[in-house]
Write a structure and sequence with these properties.
single chain, 9 helices
Length: 211
């Protein structure tokens, strides 16, 4: 065999090896990308679950009573929550008496006895009660903001969170208190909640893996 032929064969084999190396490297790269995407999807699912858990674990009986108070107050007078946000003591109709008592007694049972009624209005309402009510509102909004920050920043599976918190975007009474609180306390103070409420509901949500 001539030397030139051997050289050509070696060159051809080297080219084949190089080509195979490129193909194998490309396959490994694609596999790595798929594994990374799968891991990213898994982490986002877990983040959505963790976010929902934060919301559930921070939900207390007095929180529900506060939301009930806000909902009932919205129907009566839209300025009531704005007054509380500014630490003003609003004149409250007796229709809200049980709601106020329910919120206050979790922190000071003796204070419940201070509340009464006269001429259709609640009596005995003090700045202390307003501070307690306001704290419940702020605490709830801060928890919800922390949870929806996962959605806003895209660090959790958006579809799962949108399913879990779809009630916030509905027209039901369960959504009204949150919208009213955000409006009263300022949308700029709760950007994640505001963005979630404004983004609307997806008509055809993709499968959870999409995020």
């Amino acid at each position: 065999m001539e030397f030139g032929n051997i050289s050509e064969i070696v060159t051809a084999l080297a080219a084949i090896v190089t080509a195979l190396s490129v193909v194998i490297a490309a396959q490994q790269f694609n596999l790595s990308r798929k594994n990374a995407a799968a891991e990213n999807a898994r982490l986002k699912k877990q983040a959505a679950i963790d976010a929902a858990r934060i919301y559930i674990e921070n939900k207390r009986p007095e929180t529900d009573l506060m939301l009930q108070f806000v909902n009932n107050a919205c129907h009566i007078n839209s300025r009531i929550i704005q007054d509380i946000e500014k630490f003003h003591t609003p004149a409250l109709p007796v229709a809200l008496l049980e709601d106020v008592r329910g919120c206050v007694e979790f922190y000071d049972r003796k204070a419940v006895g201070e509340l009464g009624q006269e001429a259709g209005m609640i009596t005995g309402l003090s700045p202390k009660h307003i501070i307690q009510l306001r704290w419940l509102m702020i605490d709830y909004l801060n928890t919800l903001e922390a949870v929806l920050m996962f959605w806003w920043q895209g660090t959790a599976n958006k579809t799962l969170l949108e399913e879990e918190f779809s009630f916030l975007r509905s027209n039901a009474d369960s959504a009204r208190p949150v919208r009213h609180l955000v409006e009263s306390f300022g949308e700029a103070n709760f950007p994640a909640i505001s963005a979630f409420l404004k983004s609307g509901v997806r008509k055809t949500a993709p499968e959870p893996d999409a995020d």
